[in-house]
Amino acid sequence: MNLFEVVKASINTQEAAQAYGIDVNHYGMALCPFHNDRRPSLYVSDDHYHCFACGEHGDVIDLTAKLFDIRLYDAARKLASDFHLAPDKPLPEAIRRKKKHNTKAQQLRENEQLCFSVLNQYRRLLLDWEKRYAPQAPEDVLDERFVEACHRLPWAEYQLDILLQGDSYERSEVVSELTADGYIRKLQTRPREERYHE
C-alpha cells in the first residue's frame, strides 16, 4: 500500500475534521471552514466531505490539504504523522476491526440521515396538504390528503423531534421502526406520487 492508500484506509474524514477543529454534529453537518458559513452546510461522512453551499468536496487528504493550504502529498504525510501511521507496514488488526465497526456505525448514521431527510420532506408535503385541501365549507367532503395531513403531521413532527434531540437509543429505535419493511422508502415516494397525480 502506498501512503495515500494507508491514510485513506486508516483515517476517516470525520475523525480528521474533528481533530483539526471542525465541530461535526451527529448528523455529520458542520460549519464550512472554506466560506463564511452561518448555518452548517458542510456534510462530513467517514469517506468524504461535501459543502452544499460552496461546493467544496473530497476525501480526508483533500480536506487536510485545503485546510492547511498544502499539497496533497504533504497533507497525506501530515495525516500519517498526526495519526501515528507507518505507511510501509501492513494495517494492524485493530484498525481492520475498527474499519469494520466504522462501517456499521456509518450505516447507522446514513440510515438516520435518510430517515430525517425523508420525514422532513413528508412533513412539508403534509403541511402543504393541510392548507391546500382544507374544506372550504362544513358540508364539503373531506379530501383524503387533508385527512392524512391531520392524522400524520403530529406523528411526523414527533419522529423528527426524536431524531434531532433524542439520545442514541431513542434515535436508533425510530430508525429501526422506520426502516422495517421498507416503510421509509414508501414514504420517500409520496412527494413524487403527488407530483405525478397533479
Q: What can you tell me about this protein's structure?
A:
It is built from eight helices and four strands; from the N terminus they run H-H-E-E-E-E-H-H-H-H-H-H. It has helices at residues 3-10, 13-19, 60-68, 72-82, 93-132, 144-165, 168-179, 183-197, and strands spanning 29-30, 42-44, 49-51, 57-58. Strands 1-2-3-4 form a four-stranded antiparallel beta sheet. Helix 2 packs parallel to helix 3 and helix 5 crosses helix 7. The longest helix is centred in the middle third of the chain and has 40 residues, at 93-132.
What is the CA-based Rg, rounded?
22 Å
- Widest β-sheet, arrangement of strands: 1-2-3-4
H/E topology pattern: HHEEEEHHHHHH
Mean pLDDT: 84
What is the total number of structural domains? 2
> Percent helix among the residues?
55-70%
What structural class do the secondary elements suggest?
Answer: mainly alpha
Sheet-strand content, in percent, reads 5-15%
- Count the E strands: 4
- Largest sheet composition: 4 strands, antiparallel
Question: In angstroms, what separates the terminal alpha carbons?
Answer: 55 Å
Give start-end ranges of low-pLDDT stretches: none
How many helices does DSSP assign? 8
* Shape, principal axes of CA atoms: elongated
Domain Zinc finger CHC2-type: 29-80
Protein name: Zinc finger CHC2-type domain-containing protein
InterPro entries: DNA_primase_Znf_CHC2 (IPR036977), DnaG_primase (IPR050219), Znf_CHC2 (IPR002694)
Pfam families: Zn_ribbon_DnaG (PF01807)
